[in-house]
Design brief:
The complex is a heterodimer of chains A (307) and B (220). Chain A is an alpha/beta fold and 307 residues long. Chain A contains eleven helices and eight strands. In chain A, helix 6 crosses helix 7 and helix 10 packs across helix 11. Chain B has a four-stranded parallel sheet, sandwiched between helices. In chain B, strands 1-6-7 form a three-stranded antiparallel sheet. In chain B, a hairpin with a 2-residue loop joins strand 6 and strand 7. The radius of gyration of chain B is 22 Å and the shape is elongated. The chains are: A alpha/beta (307), B alpha/beta (220).
């Protein structure tokens, strides 16, 4: 074991891992974080806390993570390279670890254009691949990115994202290979709606033996409504929502759409459990945390293992 | 080349409002090519400023001149003969030209253009950013397409997850630089090169180390 991360323990023991996420509030509402975390706490092995998601200012992921840690739960802090240079990142990583956070996700982040501060200067001092390498070197080599030694290095379990649906598709396995080479421990994928394409990507991943070097958690997002499905299809960058998904939601009444969305997500999870190389699920419920337990129970993944 | 666009007329008018003897100076280099500040634009701007002053019921004296290069002290010296009773200079050069002129003469110098970026001409009337002058060119390993200048996030190791139909997440009008790089590497049969890790960039040569300077001892 490289770290004390509960997620690492679950994955190392060969269990199907489940993570989910909490978007912190756009204010100082500690109770909001606690309320969301309480909804999912018994159903997941780790709780992602997003970092200024969609380029909108929110309570920092580290602050949210500490609140969750204080509840006795397991935060996974997300960190985007959009908002910090390498000095700020390393300071925050050390700080987060000092406050009890041992699992993190390295991301480039949405461009500021999408948020409510499009006039901000994006940083992008290093990219997500070099961020991974930096965190790994901090942990395994006790080295800062600049080369100096770290006393008491942060022992982070290191995650990253993968989007099998963004173009060019042929490059997407190579992109994962690059993250593996940089030292990633686990991957949480983009929300999967196009199952065929995902399975094709996983085949490519397994052909290269990457699934033996990194734990891949498949991204699941239940559709709340037909409107949400259409929005994700047309407006969210890098998202692949096939017409079948839209048609299926069109086929039920508006009142029935949430139930249909949950049902679809559970069916997906059942199918994905059989896909070689899938080590678990990352459920992105997007302000629908109260339904996460239904997915975990529905897919036969409750109770969560003791490790 | 360095690209530029003329500032809104009202901004230029506000700059020169207190003065009535103006020297309007164009530059015959980059801003001429991108039709922002060459001889022709100097003439057009002078006419527009004249017209405005007439509307305000006053007349201003605007002298027009276009230097071969405004970023070069030798050419800027040509203004010495014209400067005598001039109250303000309006420069239609890039920021380098404006500053070279301002450094030489004790007269207020106002920019008439916004300096934009280092760009190449895509087609008639269209210029696109191609270089950020990062000082450590990586085009040799990216198939001749620059991820620093052309990826919206300056990612060095591949595309982010936001690519849609091969276009950048910020706009369908922007090519994903890494899609272009990948296609180019495939075309050249060297796509294996993609998996080589490009280390975190040293931004000192890009300006992170303070203002940059080139000294050629053999020419100095």
């Amino acid at each position: 074991m490289k770290t004390e991360s509960r997620l690492e323990k679950v994955l190392a023991a060969g269990h199907i891992a489940v993570t989910s996420e909490v978007g912190p509030p756009r204010g100082c509402g500690v109770e909001i974080v606690k309320e969301k975390a309480n909804m999912i706490k018994d159903y997941v092995d780790g709780i992602n806390i997003t970092d200024n998601q969609t380029a909108m200012v929110r309570m920092s992921s580290i602050a949210g993570g500490v609140i969750i840690k204080q509840m006795g739960l397991d935060p996974i802090i997300q960190m985007v390279s959009r908002d910090r240079n390498r000095l700020a990142m390393q300071a925050d990583i050390i700080g987060a670890y000092a406050l009890g956070i041992n699992t993190m996700l390295c991301l480039s982040g949405d461009h500021p254009k999408f948020g409510d501060h499009p006039m901000a200067k994006p940083v992008y001092d290093i990219d997500s691949v070099n961020m991974l390498k930096m965190v790994k070197d901090m942990r395994d080599e006790s080295k800062f990115q600049g080369g100096a030694d770290i006393k008491n290095p942060p022992k982070m379990f290191i995650g990253a994202a993968a989007n099998p649906f963004a173009d060019p598709f042929e490059l997407r396995v190579a992109r994962l290979a690059k993250k593996v080479a940089a030292g990633v421990d686990f991957i949480q994928t983009q929300c999967i709606f196009n199952m065929d394409k995902f399975e094709k990507w996983m085949e490519g991943v397994c052909d290269r033996g990457l699934h033996e070097k990194v734990h891949i958690l498949a991204g699941i997002t239940p559709m709340k409504s037909l409107g949400m499905a259409r929005y994700m299809k047309n407006k969210v960058p890098g998202m692949d929502v096939p017409d079948e998904v839209i048609k299926r939601l069109e086929g039920v009444s508006k009142e029935q759409q949430p139930e249909e969305g949950i049902k679809m997500a559970i069916e997906q999870m059942e199918r994905l459990k059989e896909v070689k190389g899938v080590a678990g699920f990352h459920i992105m419920a997007i302000e629908w945390e109260e339904r996460v337990h239904e997915l975990v129970e529905g897919a036969g993944l409750y109770p969560r293992p003791e490790v | 080349m360095i690209t530029a666009e003329q500032k809104p007329l009202q901004e230029i008018i506000q700059y020169i409002a207190p003065y009535d003897k103006i020297l309007l100076v164009g530059c015959n280099e980059c801003v001429t090519v991108c039709a922002a500040g060459g001889r022709k634009e100097v003439g057009l701007l002078a006419s527009a400023l004249h017209l405005n002053s007439l509307k305000q019921g006053k007349t201003i004296d605007i002298r027009e001149l276009t230097l071969e290069r405004q970023c070069d002290p030798e050419y800027v010296e040509e203004l010495a003969a014209e400067i005598k009773d001039v109250q303000a200079i309006v420069s239609m050069a890039c920021g380098c030209g404006v500053q070279t002129v301002a450094a030489r003469y004790k007269v207020p110098v106002f920019p008439a253009v916004n300096t934009k970026f280092m760009g190449a001409s895509e087609s008639q009337g269209i210029w696109a950013e191609r270089c950020q002058g990062c000082g450590d060119c990586m085009l040799g390993i990216t198939g001749g397409i620059c991820p620093v200048a052309r990826c919206s996030k300056s990612l060095l190791n591949g595309p982010c997850g936001g690519t849609s139909n091969g276009q950048c997440e910020i706009s369908p009008d922007v090519d994903c630089a890494w899609r272009l790089i990948w296609e180019r590497l495939v075309e050249l049969g060297i796509q294996d090169r993609y998996e080589e890790l490009n280390a975190a960039k040293d931004w000192r040569p890009a300006g992170g180390g303070g203002p940059r300077k080139i000294i050629r001892e053999d020419l100095a």
